[in-house]
Amino acid sequence: MDWQDINxxxxxxxxxxxxxxxxxxxxxxxAGLAYYLFPVLSHPFIITVxxxxxxxxxxxxxxxxxxxxxxxxxxxxxxxxxxxxxxxDEPSLAFIMLGFCLFRLFDIWKPLYIGTSQRLPGxxxxxxxxxxxxxxANLILQLLLYIL
Length: 148
What we know:
mainly alpha
């Protein structure tokens, strides 16, 4: 296994991006389950480390493959889901399912600034739209926790 194989392994989140017709959805579900088991994954330090790793990894993979945002690169979904739950101390399955739905809604719909962020070059363009999709999802969850 050479460094390019290791990089692809990271960008596809241990090969998770290779196993489905809907790799982003599968990765988001996996990230939600990982958060349920280990809520510390939504800590800003962990999210930052995975984000930086994702930017570098997706940049390298994009240059290698010639595809800017290959659908098998799902590290961005992991960051987006964990950011959706940052500063939220409610890791119930129902709340995680709601967070998943909100994140995927904004990630697929890509309103306003979310869609335009994909125009940024390389790995930052791959990663940033998921980060930006997580922001309104997180704010809605925060608001619901405040109201309830």
